[in-house]
Amino acid sequence: MEVYRKEYAEKLDRIDALHPFTNKFVKDDPNLIYLDGNSLGMLPKTTPDEMSRVINQEWGKGLIRSWNEGWYQRSAQTGACLAKLIGARPDEVIVADSTSVNLFKLVYAVLKYQDGRTRIVSDDLNFPSDIYILQGLIELFGNKHELKLAQSMDAMTISTEQIKGLLNHQTALLTLSHVVYKSAFMYDMGQITRMAHENGAMVIWDLSHAVGAVPVDLNKSGADMAIGCTYKYLNGGPGSIAFLYVRKDLQEKLQSPIWGWFGQNDPFAFDLQYEPSTGIKRFLAGSPPILSLSTLEPALDIMLEAGMDNIRQKSVRQTDYLVSLAEKYLFPLGFQLSSPRDSRQRGSHISLQHPEAYRICKALIDSETGEKVVIPDFRAPDNIRLGIAPLYNTFAEIFEAIMQLKQIAEEKLYQHFSLNRDNVT
């Protein structure tokens, strides 16, 4: 059938309204297919010029004066811009620190505010780092809290009933990833949040694998708090600065555990008695990394120009297309789908299981194997994750990547590679 031919993929690219956005990113190697945007987004072409301007003009010439010419307000201004992507008010988002640090701050704030409630609920599909933060805070609070994890029955999804069964009048906090990092399973944010609130629990959403890939409406869902990174679909760069969201009516009720000088009401008074700032700024800590903030701004401009609804529509078309190709060419070779088949329950990456997943990933990346270098990522024990970034990934790239997977599996080319794992997979 035509749908399973490369000409069909090329036709989809020709009629794709977002196809021109592929030219807004650095794609210098015609032999590279990059399907790892859910771990590190590509470099926007405008970012180097913006960085050069910040380094040469704001730092080189402006020096310390630049703090009064935009730097001091940049965390809040960038947060207000990012708020447009996640359905939040401009004064409800601040860009600061790392995802883990922001989660630490918000979980601490919840446990202190919900004093007397002793249960924390999450799931066993959550990103391990999030679980580590919860475990550490339980110890810091004197081991007064219990952590309950909803257990996935298929290593892919969690049912609403499983979460509901763990919520009770003792639940202080429910914290989940909106889109699960391994399988791309996506929760119904509004439904889960309402369920938690009915039990008096507060909710923190991790948006790291959602923001920039799926529409998020924190205000409409009634979400209390959220955190997320910016180096994945937001293309902010390796290790780029993270963000946090706190609903407006909660900001003055919650206390950050890190009483840093940028969270102080009047930091340049240098008063020795800490007084938290008003609003979302009270969740700042130390001086913001201006260079990291500056890489994020041009990337957000591209995202806002494209529009989240348009991005999501293309993401669904591309992930559905990938699944259809996998069914045709890969499932007969021992691959299995480990992401939800229903796009309404799925983010923008697809996981494929195979017993030789690690060595297949190594073969995909190797320049001597196949016509193209295909960069996915591997997630233990046997998942090949293919991250679709609709702003720069094409339908033709998806077709070529599946054909290369087919060749590697059919010819067992993965056998040329060692089972020894790299430090970073």
Detailed description of the structure:
The chain has helices spanning about 5-15, 45-60, 75-85, 100-115, 130-140, 160-165, 190-200, 220, 290-305, 310-330, 355-365, 395-410; strands at about 30-35, 95, 120-125, 145-150, 170-175, 200-205, 225-230, 245, 335, 350-355, 375, 375-380, 385. With about 425 residues, the protein is of the alpha/beta class. The protein folds into two domains: about 1-30 and about 305-415, Aspartate Aminotransferase, domain 1 (Alpha-Beta Complex), CATH 3.90.1150.10; about 50-305, Aspartate Aminotransferase, domain 2, CATH 3.40.640.10. The strands form three sheets. A seven-stranded mixed beta sheet has the order 2-8-7-6-5-3-4, sandwiched between helices. Helix 3 runs parallel beside helix 9. The model has no long low-confidence stretch (mean pLDDT about 95).
Widest sheet, order of strands: 2-8-7-6-5-3-4
Number of strands: 13
Shape: globular
CATH superfamily descriptor of the largest domain: Type I PLP-dependent aspartate aminotransferase-like (Major domain)
Descriptors:
single chain; 425 residues; alpha/beta; Aspartate Aminotransferase, domain 1; Aspartate Aminotransferase, domain 2; 2 domains; 4-stranded antiparallel sheet; 12 helices
List the helices and strands and how they pair.
Layout: H1 6-14, E1 32-34, H2 47-61, H3 74-83, E2 93-95, H4 99-113, E3 119-123, H5 128-140, E4 146-150, H6 160-164, E5 171-177, H7 189-198, E6 202-206, H8 218-221, E7 225-228, E8 243-246, H9 290-306, H10 308-329, E9 336-337, E10 349-353, H11 357-365, E11 373-375, E12 377-379, E13 383-387, H12 395-410
Parallel strand pairs: 1-11, 3-4, 3-5, 5-6, 6-7
Antiparallel strand pairs: 2-8, 7-8, 9-10, 10-13, 12-13
